[in-house]
Amino acid sequence: MTDGAVTGAARQHVLVAADKFKGSLTAVEVAERVRAGIGRAAPAVTVEALPVADGGDGTVAAAVAAGFERREARVTGPLGEPVTAAFALRDGTAVVEMAEASGLSLLPEGVFAPLTATTYGSGELLRAALDAGARRIVFGVGGSATTDGGAGMLAALGARFLDAGGEPVGPGGAALRDLVSADLSGLDPRLADAEVVLAGDVDNPLTGPKGAPAVFGPQKGASAEDVAVLDAALVNYVRVLEKAVGPRAAEAAVSPGAGGAGGIGYGALVGLGAGFRPGIELMLDILGFHAALERATLVITGEGSLDEQTLHGKAPAGVAAAAREAGVEVVAVCGRLLLAPEALGRAGIRRAYPLTALEPDPARCIANAGPLLERAAAGLAQDFLS
């Protein structure tokens, strides 16, 4: 390599702002592997890692990687058993991820509980953030095992949901069929002085054909009959809350974010006074992405699967949109690529490097994702950084 080439490479500043490869690599591990691959092929290039998340699972880890302090609390898991859940804290701002307390990943392999899984632990985790002094809470929703409309979360924070006999209804979404009255007056008073921002990547309503049970219930083990039960139960939940707090309960049910994480978004909108923002936009602000972008000459984003869902609020689309606005070129790494070049281009991504191009067998690809990603990053460096 000539001296001029070395100088040119030294001026290159790569920002790795990728999400996790679900099931194989965390966002932090993705950044490490990309850095290693670029280091092999273009050692003079500066590589800055900024793991990102869109509000779903991995959001707390991304915040900790960006300098937030990791805190832990013992809370109630989705099946009612105790689990250890983490949140992130810095300067009075807490990043709370519902999947840490109520996520699908907390269920034993092959076990689902679509009718009875509870978000009670998410409420306990929010309370732990308040106990730690949080005045602003970024509440990331996604990856849930639950479809209870956030009723469990609100109950943990002091709300009461009662049946015809004046007894608390059971855990999970199906129990909301028996709901007759709701009382939110006992909610933790600290919530009134805290700003709660709902960070999600879906704009589905709470109920109906595009609602939380119909669209996301099957991912949590819900049969067609279960979906019908959950939808009817959530319709009743909205009706009872409307009696308790007025028309805003019905309005929130069709608001963006209401259907997020089995309807916990709805519970946050109605009970916590939360405002909704697309998760990736909010997280890029929280993580300091825009300052890092000013230093970058190339951005590398990505996630496990680049597909149609990517284009609707997922992390790579948000990163690419912000980089395009700043005039910085974007390329992507991914486990598999299901988007045509034209769709990638419209999203602001110049080119994608899927691991399946190096290892077509899905099982081997997942098992060897780290070394494969290093190879993909080295190829990317040869194409864009030489």
Outline the secondary-structure elements:
Layout: H1 3-11, E1 13-16, H2 27-41, E2 46-49, H3 59-65, E3 69-76, E4 82-90, E5 93-97, H4 98-102, H5 120-131, E6 136-140, H6 151-156, E7 160-162, E8 181-183, E9 195-200, H7 212-216, H8 224-245, H9 248-253, H10 260-271, E10 275-278, H11 279-287, H12 289-295, E11 298-306, H13 315-326, E12 329-337, H14 341-346, E13 352-354, H15 362-367, H16 369-384
| Termini Cα gap | 9 Å
On the 0-100 scale, what is the average pLDDT?
A: 95
CATH class of the largest domain: Alpha Beta
Number of domains: 2
Task: Give the CATH superfamily of the largest domain.
Answer: Glycerate kinase, domain 2
Poorly predicted spans:
1-7
User: Structural class given helices, strands, pairing?
Assistant: alpha/beta
Strand content: 15-25%
Radius of gyration: 22 Å
H/E series, N to C? HEHEHEEEHHEHEEEHHHHEHHEHEHEHH
Strand order of the largest sheet: 3-4-5-6-9-10
Shape: elongated
Major sheet characteristics = 6 strands, mixed
What's the CATH topology label of the largest domain?
Glycerate kinase, domain 2
Question: Could you estimate the helical fraction of the residues in percent?
Answer: 40-55%
In the CATH classification, which architecture of the largest domain applies? Alpha-Beta Complex
Short description:
The protein is of the alpha/beta class. The chain is built from 16 helices and 13 strands.
